[in-house]
Amino acid sequence: MISSVSHHKELILAQLLWQNFLFHIKSHLALILSWVIPRSGAIWVVGSSKGLRFADNGKHFAIHARRKWPKQRIIWLSPSEEVRNQVETANIEAYAPSSLKGMWYGFRASWHVFDVSIADTHIFSSTGANKLNLWHGVTLKDLNVMEQNDAQHWLSKFHDWWYRKSARKNYFIYPNKKHMSYLLNLFNIPNENFILANLPRNQILITGSAGVLSTSEESLRNTIQSSSETIIGYFPTWRNTGQDKFLGLSSKEDISLLNDFLKQNNTKILTKWHSCSYKEYQHQGVSQTHESIDQEIEAASQIIKLPFDSDLMAFLDLCDVLISDYSSVLIDYLILERPIIQSVYDLDEYKELNGFMEDYPYFAKTSGPQVVDSESLFIEIRSAIEQCKNESSSSRPNLVELKNYYFETLQTIELLEPVLKPVK
Questions:
Q1: Can you give the CATH number for the domain in which 371 is found?
Q2: Using DSSP, how many helices (H) and how many strands (E) does the chain show?
């Protein structure tokens, strides 16, 4: 028995050593190609969500850039054929990152643009390129759980120098300077490479245009828009524990009571789990509970569940009220100046395991009521519905105050132009 366990450990170690060896071989090959293949300012490659979705900031950057600078060649990289087909319907070129064309354009592109990590485009073909991190939200949570290795260590410096991973080529956009020092330190970005600009996805909320939609997204939007019901969005963040609940509820009985309450109040909930909660995303925060909860949700007539590959921003403007916990969607939604409810059923646990930004208490106090159980939830939903009927956004100065705090600018593409230097 002991011998069998020992042999198993040896096999795992050998596999890890072999994977590490292959990684360094590929890295050295990429290094050589990055010296041989000249990069072109006329070509940029873009990706998002590990290449698994055509969504979020990567999608909206590509669409806006394509329209703003038609002479600039924008190419999307994704290993998913389904995603590439969707991208091509938006008149944007798309290739698999490891295909011959994908590798060629990856090494030719002067910019790799992404919103999660450089793996959104390609780790190897990005060697020596400029990298623009669009990120995926104005954070309420402490991000130190994902803190990288010490970039100041001499070995880290040598590694980055050898593999042409100079911090001087790393750029980061964010709509305020309040979190600037924290984020630049976390992502190893020089101060001069911080770009004060709004997140590309938020332009949908500002212009009122739904943007480029898939057939299923367009059909669902039309259905929701034709409804006379109040629409409440519920979009929670992910949890390290994987123990997700639906508005703090998990049992069949509780979700059935919620559904009855919604029906009585002529209201529907539009919902989507955080991308990290889905097993497709292969993230540490994959949910251990959402699939069982989904069975109850799908049986509820008043709850509409969006699939993993849907773009949340295609629907956020349809929500009369937003309920969330600690997700950055709360900050995006401030642009609309509509009622917000905070569902913080695990606030103490989340604070202990993850933590919050220093200004989270200000947001929590100012944005809207906090609920921790079904009783307080039902009370605040009724109140929010009445607000929608009887109040205009001008009567919500607290939301205007928060919007001005988190958004020092609402512009995006115009502020990126001096840095990206597109072909015109």
A1: 3.40.50.12580
A2: 16, 13
Distance separating alpha carbons of residues 29 and 37, to the nearest angstrom:
12
The verdict on residue 4 lying in a domain is: no
| Residue 364 included in any domain | yes
Q: What span, in angstroms and rounded, lies between the C-alpha atoms of 60 and 55?
A: 7
Could you give the percent of the chain with pLDDT greater than 70? 91
Which two tokens mark 271?
């919902």
Environment class of 16 (CB within 10 Å of its CB; exposed 0-12, middle 13-18, buried 19+): exposed
Asked, for residue 10, whether it belongs to a domain, the answer is no
Angle at 417 between CA 414 and CA 423, to 5 degrees: 125
The answer to the question of residue 283 being in a domain is yes
> Do 157 and 256 share a domain, yes or no?
no
Answer yes or no: do 90 and 112 share one domain.
Answer: yes
Q: What angle do CA 238, 397, 415 make, to 5 degrees?
A: 65
Residue 375 has pLDDT above 70, yes or no: yes
> Which pLDDT does position 149 carry in this prediction?
44
Tens of pLDDT, residues 136-163: 999 999 987 655 544 455 455 555 655 5
Judged by phi (left if over 0) then psi (alpha if -120 to 50, else beta), residue 290 lies in alpha
Which residue segment(s) compose the domain that 54 sits in?
Answer: 36-198+411-420
CATH of residue 132? 3.40.50.11820
Please state, in angstroms and rounded to a whole number, the distance separating the CA atoms of residues 61 and 49: 14
Alpha-carbon distance of 134 to 58, in angstroms, equals 7
* CB hemisphere CA count around 78 (13 angstroms): 25
Tokens of 84: 């590439």
C-alpha closest to that of 217 among 294, 312, 300: 312
